[in-house]
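Severity: low
Component: inverse-folding endpoint
Summary: output formatting inconsistent between runs
Steps to reproduce: submit the following structure tokens with default settings.
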């Protein structure tokens, strides 16, 4: 669990090539006071504007905590102040536009972030990485979103009792989004085209990617996808 006081002014060893991603879970409610004080110091104008535009306080708290945590941890990994970390977007693999995977200017450390309803999840790796975190939706919401699943995944859900379907759907969804974020295409890629499964063990969507579920608690699901180079 992330604690700002534990990384301020510290130096962390970044993930080594071929090593597992470093994962950090954030509790936005617990960190509200600390990250609120740090936001004005470490967040850029665009990040502060995005946070202010969020309608619900819980969403705003999660955004601020996750982005403050991101900058503090990047600073600790890279040996510089959080405000000196320059964040950029790589070219999109689909259209070459400036909205691909987020990155640090001039540095090989890769990262990804996600936040949902008071929780944030950060991943850092020596290779391309994607992470996602989502709360389990209602059964009605699942029925309305089945077209985002691969046909084989929809068949898997059909074989489950109705009460088990929301959790299984969410497992599949966070796996897909983590993988698509790792590729740098996000939801411009088709979630229904990749099969990652809905069961307890994820299926790898490609031979050169490792997909792993992340236990986050609070009725939510998480997943991380890391490029392995085969």
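Observed output (run 2 of 3):
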């Amino acid at each position: 669990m992330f604690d700002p006081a534990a990384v301020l002014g510290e130096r962390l060893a970044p993930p080594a090539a071929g090593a597992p991603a470093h994962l950090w879970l954030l509790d936005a409610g617990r960190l509200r006071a600390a990250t609120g004080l740090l936001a004005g110091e470490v967040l850029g104008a665009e990040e502060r504007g995005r946070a202010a535009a969020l309608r619900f306080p819980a969403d705003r708290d999660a955004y601020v905590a996750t982005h403050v945590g991101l900058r503090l941890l990047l600073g600790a990994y890279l040996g510089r102040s959080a405000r000196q970390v320059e964040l950029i977007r790589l070219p999109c693999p689909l259209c070459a536009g400036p909205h691909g995977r987020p990155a640090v200017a001039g540095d090989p450390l890769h990262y990804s972030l996600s936040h949902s309803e008071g929780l944030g999840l950060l991943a850092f790796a020596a290779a391309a990485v994607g992470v996602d975190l989502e709360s389990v939706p209602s059964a009605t919401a699942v029925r309305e979103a089945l077209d985002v699943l691969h046909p084989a995944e929809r068949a898997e859900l059909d074989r489950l009792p109705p009460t088990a379907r929301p959790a299984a759907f969410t497992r599949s969804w966070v796996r897909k989004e983590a993988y698509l974020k790792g590729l740098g295409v996000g939801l411009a890629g088709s979630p229904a085209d990749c099969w990652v499964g809905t069961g307890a063990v994820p299926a790898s969507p490609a031979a050169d990617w490792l997909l792993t579920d992340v236990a986050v608690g609070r009725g939510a699901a998480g997943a991380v996808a890391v490029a392995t180079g085969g």
